[in-house]
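Shipment paperwork, digital attachment
Item: protein structure file
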Amino acid sequence: MSTPRVLLVEDTTFHSVAPLAINHIKVAFEAEGCQAEVIRESEAVNFQPSRFDLLSRRNLNRLIEAPSDIAIAAGSRAQKLLKQARRDFRSWWPEAEVEPGIPMPLLATSRTAQHPPQALGICSDDPTTQRAAQLVAEELNLLLVDLTTHSSQADITLHSSQESQSHLHALDLILCDRPGEELPALRAALCGVAVIGPGVCNDEPFDPDAIDAWRTKSRQLLQEPELRLSHAEAWSTWLTNRHDPRTIAQRLLGGLPLLRHKMN
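Attachment content:
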């Protein structure tokens, strides 16, 4: 049987949110025995060329009409492009949970515990969570950083690097209502920042509607550096395992009959 062919089409919006995602998935596809090609939107490859730019339109059509067994459109403009070409494709949105069961690949970096704690992050619009964060910051004399004001597409990338994420490394703990979905919380977790919220590390459940529940958990982690560090490592490990590139590649390929034998 011939080698399965995968076409990955990525627009600039998707790339700005997760610059390394397509590269990691391409490698994962190749590990599954596929031949993977990437078409990335750029100045040289405009996904919306002028109707009068016949050369660009011809080159773009040649790229997206390349034969493949499965096409994956990463981002809304990539999806629009493949729809116009009347190609069947799988959609991949530039959010953490792009479709049920198909998240972004996440890679973590390690860190050492801060002594003493200095900054608390909040990633929530819920008044209860916000009030809890304010109280903890006041009680422990911490800087409170509101992560909800950050632009998820312009400022947040899911890959981990000291240059783009140095400000997050200064945080010791983040309170978040949706820690597995909110991009600022995900990004911080990959920097080794401890995160608390519903479902983190499958921890014992606490009432997110109770200010004291948030305060108790926050103070416990902030006052015990080693516990905070181990908590952060456990959550980061869980996230990166769940977002393993090869697992994601298998999910993206899973419904294609030609490739089912590759997953066995």
